[in-house]
Specification:
Layout lengths: L3 H5 L4 E5 L3 H8 L8 H10 L28 E6 L16 E4 L6 H6 L5 H10 L1
Parallel strand pairs: 1-2, 2-3
């Protein structure tokens, strides 16, 4: 049978907009004490898609390198707005491009503004 990553290899693009991904990672990540290096590595392997490495040293407790599918043919575009309290520029992940849009409305309206913004659609169409 085909490996799970074989189906993923067909994926050519990932679009996130209004994404709270960085905030979710920051606020809900599991804090692993330095005396639990094996647990830290297992958690990194489970949640590792395009996440930037932690740069922790594991010394004698380093596990064999694990391979998270990196999907080299898949490009990731993130669109965010500083007036949208939910979205963020993604810093914990390796994103190919990030586009900043400015929506001068209330935070709730700004979060929904992507859907009505013709320039947003033009940016996405040019990118893909």
């Amino acid at each position: 049978g085909a490996s799970p990553s074989a189906g993923l290899s067909r994926l050519r693009g990932l679009l996130t907009f209004g994404s709270p991904l960085d905030a979710i990672y920051y606020f809900f990540r599991t804090e692993v004490p330095s005396d639990q290096p094996v647990r830290a590595q297992i958690l990194s392997s489970l949640h590792g898609f395009r996440k930037r490495p932690s740069l922790r040293e594991y010394d004698k407790f380093a596990l064999a390198p694990y391979k998270v599918p990196d999907l080299p043919d898949c490009r990731w575009l993130n669109v965010y707005s500083p007036t949208d309290l939910i979205s963020r520029k993604l810093i914990f992940y390796k994103v190919d491009e990030q586009i900043r849009r400015f929506y001068p409305w209330s935070p709730a309206r700004a979060h929904l503004a992507y859907w009505r913004d013709r320039e947003f659609y033009k940016c996405v169409a040019r990118w893909f």
